[in-house]
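Ticket closed. Logging final result for DNA-(apurinic or apyrimidinic site) lyase.
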Amino acid sequence: MPEGDTVHQAAHRLHTALAGHTLTRSDLRVPRHATADLTDRTVLDVTPRGKHLLTRVEGGLTLHSHLGMDGSWRVYAPQERWRGGPAHQIRAVLATADHTAVGYRLPVLELLRTTDEHRVVGHLGPDLLGPDWDPEQALRNLRAAPERPLGEALLDQRNLAGIGNIYKSELCFLLGATPWLPVGDLPEETAARLPALAKKLLEANRDRPARTTTGSTRPGQRLYVYGRAPRPCLRCGTALRSAEQGDGTRRRPTYWCPTCQQGPTP
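Final structure:
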């Protein structure tokens, strides 16, 4: 599942393959930009912002994409077979003489002026893996709605950018709080270490091919709680639980340990 670390890796791959090179092919397979052609323009850079990707090309244009739940960008050599999914799932193709970048299942793909990037990412909070990271501001953002469940607050990219459903569950476990605990009920000491812990988790995984929050690389033990119910908790042995959590617009599977984590549950 794409989260801040995954997007950072995708940006690095795209930047390495495309930046500084001229596009020999441009194919944007969304109705709004089906006739747009970036051929013969040089890619300037590919920058991650939270869970967004900004591919900037000469002429003051930016291709903005978001991976959503299962989107991906793959990079291929000229004669390499594309393996990211069936052709009907391809939303973008950007090619240079040496590499071809293919975007699969992208729920967001739009071409805009680089000067208008604020329109699509300006609402985001401090980026956990970005140069604008500000732990104090992130904590202030989270505390602005003290009645809000912790899990929902962590997923709100306006508070801090980069956390998805996996890190939400894992971070709540490491904090010893259920995802339904109101932010304002977090003990002061726990709240104070939340931003640094969140950053530590993403930084530890931004260059790893397989995400782990436990430090283990063994299958089934890479994560503390996410996707593991009803298996035993790696710390206490209690059967882990799962339930849907959401704000009414989207509900997502959430995992927790009823012994290690304190607070309300469904």
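The two ends are 24 Å apart (CA to CA). No further action required.
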